[in-house]
Design a protein that fits this description.
two-stranded antiparallel ribbon
C-alpha cells in the first residue's frame, strides 16, 4: 500500500534519518547571523559576542530567520524542548537574562544542558564528572562481581568497551578539573579488582596486551 507524503518524512522506514537530513539540509544556508550546530534532529544555535545587547539583537534576527524557514518548509518546532543557556567567563558579573520569544512562546533559561552526552553547566564540568562517576561505579561493580567467572581476556574487553570508553569521551574538556581525580580513583579500583593486577608493571602489560 502506497501513500503520498507531501511534507516531512514518513515514520518508521530505515531511510527516515537520511530523508530527514536531506529535508533540513538547507537550514544553515538560511540562518545568516549564527553558525548552527546540527546533530540528527538536535539543533543548537550558539551566538557569541562581548556585548549582551549585541547577543540579543543577533538572537532576534536568528529567531526570525528560523521562523521563516520553518514556515516555508511546513515544519513545526517543539518549543517545550527548546531551552536557552547563558554562558560567560565573568563569575562575579550577574548578567540580566533577556526574554526570548519563539513563535510567541517564552523560552525558559536553564543552568545545565546535556549536549551529545556531555553535561554543560556554565563551562564547569562538576555535574558531568558526577554523572560519569556514577556510570563508572556501575561498570566497576559489574567487573568486580564477574571477575571470578571471566577470563583475563574477557575482562580486558569489558574494561575497554564499558569503562575506558566512558573515560575517554569528553576527557579533553574535563581532564583539567580537580574533581576529575575521582575518575582516576575509580579507575585504580577497577584495575585492582581484576585478578592478577597487583602492581604497576602488570597493569601496564594488561592495558597494552
Amino acid at each position: 500500500m502506497c501513500k503520498e507524503i507531501k511534507h516531512g518524512v514518513p515514520q518508521g522506514p530505515v531511510l527516515r534519518p537520511l530523508l530527514f537530513l536531506l529535508y533540513i539540509n538547507d537550514l544553515p544556508l538560511n540562518i545568516h547571523d549564527a553558525m548552527l550546530v546540527l546533530y540528527a534532529d538536535d539543533i543548537n544555535i550558539p551566538i557569541i559576542d562581548k556585548n549582551i545587547d549585541a547577543v540579543q539583537a543577533s538572537l532576534n534576527r536568528v529567531i526570525k530567520q528560523f521562523e521563516n524557514w520553518l514556515s516555508n518548509n511546513s515544519l513545526i518546532y517543539n518549543t517545550d524542548k527548546t531551552k536557552a543557556m547563558l554562558l560567560h567567563l565573568n563569575r562575579t558579573c550577574n548578567l540580566v537574562m533577556r526574554k526570548i520569544f519563539f513563535k510567541n512562546v517564552d523560552i525558559s533559561y536553564t543552568s545545565e544542558v546535556k549536549f551529545l552526552g556531555i553535561n554543560i553547566s556554565n563551562l564547569k564540568w562538576n555535574m558531568h564528572i558526577q554523572c560519569l562517576c556514577s556510570k563508572l561505579n556501575k561498570v566497576s561493580y559489574m567487573i568486580s562481581s564477574q571477575r571470578g567467572d571471566l577470563s583475563l581476556f574477557v575482562l580486558r574487553n569489558v574494561y575497554f568497551t564499558k569503562f575506558q570508553s566512558l573515560i575517554r569521551y569528553g576527557i579533553i574538556l574535563l581532564g583539567g578539573e580537580r574533581e576529575s581525580l575521582q575518575v582516576l580513583e575509580i579507575r585504580k579500583r577497577v584495575l585492582r579488582s581484576i585478578k592478577g593486577l597487583h602492581n604497576e608493571s602488570i597493569v601496564n602489560q594488561f592495558l597494552k596486551s
